[in-house]
Amino acid sequence: MVELNQPSAGAPYAPGFGGDTSNAMIAAERAGASTGYVSAVGDDTFGRLLLALWRDEGVDAAHVRVVPGAPTGVYFVTHGPNGHEFSYLRAGSAASRMAPADLPLEAIRSARILHASGISQAISPSAADAVFAAIDEARRANVIVSYDTNLRLRLWPLARARAIMHEALRRADIALPGLDDAQQLTGLSDADAIADFYLALGPKIVALTLGKDGALVATPERRERIAPKRVAALDATGAGDAFDGNFLAEYLRSGDPFAAGRFANSAAALSTLGYGAIAPLPKRAATLAMMGSP
């Protein structure tokens, strides 16, 4: 999606880019992973801007479809005393028209990790079906499946979100929920209880982001609380996506979910130092430098 971000009341909207899985892939690419993206954009100016973004960031967009007659999604971000607020214009967007028949199955089979999110499934029933089909194809090919809940109640009711997300997580290897989302989806408040809940669904790794309190990474054998990195945050837009992309990139590099969690925690902190979802995403060297600081 194209982003229009207003840093303060009355200020001009600054153009940028967003979309949670796109943000995560750009974050992973900047962290040193080789990435590709599956989606759809309109045959319009915004769609061409997104295609140029992925090209410039090194994300393989060969499997992003251009759909004539369908718009590219747009969203607005405003900031106030309660943090950032989103408004969306994406009904009927090209991405929302994705269906299982649109999937590049060979590309999915050749990946090391397939990453999807609750938003990927919330935007339409056909998109929800496409994500399930992609997950099933990945599992048949022994591709690791990663899933971020990223709950957006403006897109669907809680009961439907819970049913679909938790079914997706039963098929996932890595769960990447945020605490606020997980509390609503599970009815639990304690981070350790939430980690236990998602491990019981089937994932072997749960990386639960805790906002200003850092993160909790859990496996059936071990868990670790990761302390927050204190920064002068300006904008938390996309911080969870930054965590996801950096976690997956570092997990591919090291095979260690706890090292990946520490790396992603530092990268997510750095991502809050500028406005917008993309511009502040750090490169790997910057994240390593942050890890060496208090």
Profile the largest sheet: 6 strands, mixed
Low-confidence stretches: none
Question: CATH homologous superfamily, by name?
Answer: Ribokinase
Number of domains: 1
Spatial extent as radius of gyration = 18 Å
CATH architecture heading: 3-Layer(aba) Sandwich
Q: What helical percentage do the residues reach?
A: 40-55%
Helical stretch count? 11
Averaged pLDDT: 94
* Topology-level CATH name: UDP-N-acetylmuramoyl-L-alanine:D-glutamate ligase
CATH first level: Alpha Beta
List how many beta strands DSSP finds.
12
Distance between the termini: 35 Å
Following the backbone from N to C, one meets helices and strands in this order, namely: EEHEHEEEHEHHEHEHHEEEHHH
User: Which geometry do the CA atoms define?
Assistant: globular
Structure description:
This protein has helices at residues 20-30, 45-57, 105-110, 118-122, 125-140, 158-170, 179-186, 191-201, 239-254, 257-270, 284-291, and strands at 2-5, 14-17, 36-42, 60-67, 74-80, 83-89, 113-117, 144-148, 174-175, 205-209, 215-218, 223-226. It has 294 residues and is of the alpha/beta class. The protein has one domain: UDP-N-acetylmuramoyl-L-alanine:D-glutamate ligase (3-Layer(aba) Sandwich). The protein is globular and about 50 Å long. It starts with a strand and ends with a helix. The mean pLDDT is 94.
